[in-house]
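Email to the structure team, subject: NusB/RsmB/TIM44 domain-containing protein model.

Hi all, the expression group asked for a predicted structure before they design truncation constructs. Nothing fancy, just the tokens so they can compare against earlier work. One-line instruction: predict NusB/RsmB/TIM44 domain-containing protein, return tokens.
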Amino acid sequence: MQKISRHKTRTCLFQALYSKLHLEDSFSKESFIESFFESDDSFIDKIYFDEAFDWIQENEGKLIYIINKFAPKFDILSMPIINIIPIFIAWYEMLYLKCDKIPEKVSINEALEMVKMYSDDQARVLVNWVLNSLKENKEKIIEELENIPNKNLFFKKYE
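Reply from the structure team: attached below.
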């Protein structure tokens, strides 16, 4: 049995969210984890994975609104989803994570590692800029969070 790894869990979460976008209703978290890890999912932090997977889909519209307001130069509609999912994951950790507290710097660095793995350096610079802009405005965002509209763009089921 392996030790639970938040890094590996984030990678799994990234791939699960990406798969969910493409498979839509035919996607199953349980089947994904089982087939992806060939029954050795002992290193997955299941509480974190489940909370993040559901929260990101349910609050995607709010996340998009926040990005548009506090990082207006970031055109979310023109960005590949592989550059957006790491932002969603980091923001989940920075705003909502209930199972434990992760330093914001760690959340940002992990998001940048995901972008580095799946995208390019230009995207990494942009994602870093967006996350730092959001971090700088975190208090304002938290104050506004309840009143932010939640119109989903990617995960349509949650509209």
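Residues 50-158 form a domain with the N-utilizing Substance Protein B Homolog; Chain A fold (CATH 1.10.940.10). The first helix runs from residue 6 to 23. Ping us if the truncation boundaries need rechecking.
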